[in-house]
Specification:
Number of strands of chain A: 12
Largest sheet of chain B: 6 strands, mixed
Shape of chain B: globular
Mean pLDDT of chain B: 91
Number of strands of chain B: 12
Low-confidence stretches of chain B: none
Strand content of chain A: over 45%
Structural class of chain A: mainly beta
Radius of gyration of chain A: 13 Å
Mean pLDDT of chain A: 92
Distance between the termini of chain A: 37 Å
Helix content of chain A: under 10%
Shape of chain A: globular
Structural class of chain B: mainly beta
Distance between the termini of chain B: 41 Å
Oligomer: heterodimer
Low-confidence stretches of chain A: none
Largest interface: A-B, 33 and 27 residues
Chain lengths: 114, 116
């Protein structure tokens, strides 16, 4: 089974802090994603990566950056956390584009910024 | 633009009754459609997908979905609901304009409540 692991399930951070959310997948997937989930808005794509050191902006990249130094690891960085970044963050991975490759999700990281 | 609509915020069903969770989509080319389920405080779990072929797709936990091209719909169904099916359900469509990248566009989600 595919396993996508988000190391921190629940975090509380102060406004202005730099926050790191870590994600590791064990299936040698090329593609990795960071989504944000908010009630009534579904999932919105923040950033994705299609290879080591490669990244592309998603729909809501402002206030975030990412790092992919190794194929299995994809980190989301909040440079200066703000209260409007309080949310559930979901990491995901998949094989490259092909006829409907399934995207697999981690358990999520609940971030509260106070 | 690609989009997915889940017209119902919540669906209420009695245990043992059939359930339907609705999804409609808009894409430019052929759609790749997915259903995911999310239990409280958990990530999303893959249920099923439609790529091509038979319009009726069977997935995990007894769920199935019917692809209807003329109505641009991909409704999720189950013949007999269980209380344990209560969760948040997301429909998603593959973005055909994402180049080589397997991006999904998600609906807002539908909360399914199955009552004993």
């Amino acid at each position: 089974d595919v396993k996508v692991t988000q190391s921190s399930r629940y975090l509380v951070k102060r406004t202005g802090e730099k926050v790191f959310l870590e994600c590791v997948q064990d299936m040698d997937h090329e593609n990795m994603f960071w989504y944000r989930q908010d009630p009534g808005l579904g999932l919105r794509l923040i950033y994705f990566s299609y290879d080591v050191k490669m990244k592309e902006k998603g729909d809501i990249p402002e206030g975030y950056s990412v790092s992919r130094e190794k194929k299995e690891r994809f980190s989301l960085i909040l440079e200066s956390a703000s209260t409007n970044q309080t949310s559930m963050y979901l990491c995901a991975s998949s094989l490259p584009r092909a006829a409907g490759n399934t995207i697999y999700f981690g358990e999520g990281s609940w971030l509260t910024v106070v | 633009a690609q989009s997915v609509a889940q017209p119902e915020d919540q669906v209420n069903v009695a245990e043992g009754n059939p359930l339907t969770v609705k999804c409609t989509y808009s894409v430019s080319g052929n759609p790749y459609l997915f259903w995911y389920v999310q239990y409280p405080n958990r990530g999303l779990q893959f249920l099923l997908k439609y790529i091509t072929g038979d319009n009726l797709v069977k997935g995990s936990y007894g769920f199935e979905a019917e692809f209807n091209k003329s109505q641009t719909s991909f409704h999720l169904k189950k013949p007999s609901a269980l209380v344990s099916d209560s969760a948040l359900y997301f429909c998603a469509v593959r973005d055909g304009f994402s180049g080589g990248y397997n991006k999904l566009i998600f609906g807002a989600g539908t909360r399914l409540a199955v009552h004993p």
